[in-house]
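Late entry, evening session. Most of the bench is empty. Finally got around to the prediction I had been postponing all week. Sequence below, unchanged from the version circulated by S.P.
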Amino acid sequence: MKRRNFVAAAGAASLLSACGQQQDCGTATGSNKSSQKTIEWSMVTTWPPGFQGLGTGAEHLAELIGKLSKGRLKVKVYGAGELVPALQVFDAVSSGSVQIGHGASYYWKGKLPAASFFSAVPFGLNSQQMNGWLLKGGGLELWQELYAPYNLIPMPAGNSDMQMAGWFNKEINSIDDLKGLKMRIPGLGGEVLKRAGGNPELIAGGEIFSALEMGRIDAAEFVGPYNDLAFGFYKAAKYYYYPGWQEPGTTLEAIINKEAFEALPSDLQEIVKAACLIANEDILAEFTEKNSEALNTLVEKHGVQVKRLPQAVLDHLEEISKNLVAEQANTNELSKRIYESYLAFKNKSKVWKDMAQGF
């Protein structure tokens, strides 16, 4: 049996049951009558078509929805640029021109600054902690509240786990080396770099290589070895730095048009939510498996120079990050509640994580 089919078969029943019992799997309700009518949805993504881990993860989510619904709900996937540009996914789903999207919430920071909390916060929660906060710590309810005015229902639908600090065309020996640095880096990480004197740019994944190669940017972070190897970044940059301070465990999202969701029979609503949770775990497992293998290929086959950022640089960036994240609480009342919830969960879970993994 194929691994993905096994995951779907093994996980569907328990997740469907769990979602039916927990409020944090969604708030919308629908008809209790099951309809045999075939419903067709379109999914747009921020990822290049068929891109491993991310694009294929979105495709797997669509496949799961089709299989679990026995073909009653069919989802056609469009990669970035095939139907809408990568950074217009939020607006396309919000307007109802498509029913579902797949991406990462920090791409919408310009529209919703607090959205970054639900993808990645510099020096913040790792993948396990993010899942804990979202699914058991009240994070998902806050996420839904944030997106509600935009006619959207968010769900966690993947996690890229630990990341790298990125690809650089010059060595980073001190904080001064970040000043004036043109770097592709989204979300709060980009704001931290800006305050450190750098120039962050938001560039879709499929455009990063050309920007590096042509010298439009000096550095770039994307995900980690698995995806970075596929994009061939080692051909355009000399140094590969770690750790991924800017994204310690990035949650990927499915965003669902609220009206389209509420038009579904109640059993199909639960199937959509359960499929998101299955994809959430499956994508994380894939990155966990593939990153080590890809890193070895980058070093052994392509001679990539892997370097650790100096501790003084990390300490400075962390101090900037703490101040920046705290400022999010002053944006509005909802942002304050999101910040307080996130920070409380981080402090609570850190005690156990540090104790249990203190080796």
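Two things to note before I forget:
Residues 266-300 form the longest helix (35 residues).
The mean pLDDT is 90.
Will write this up properly tomorrow.
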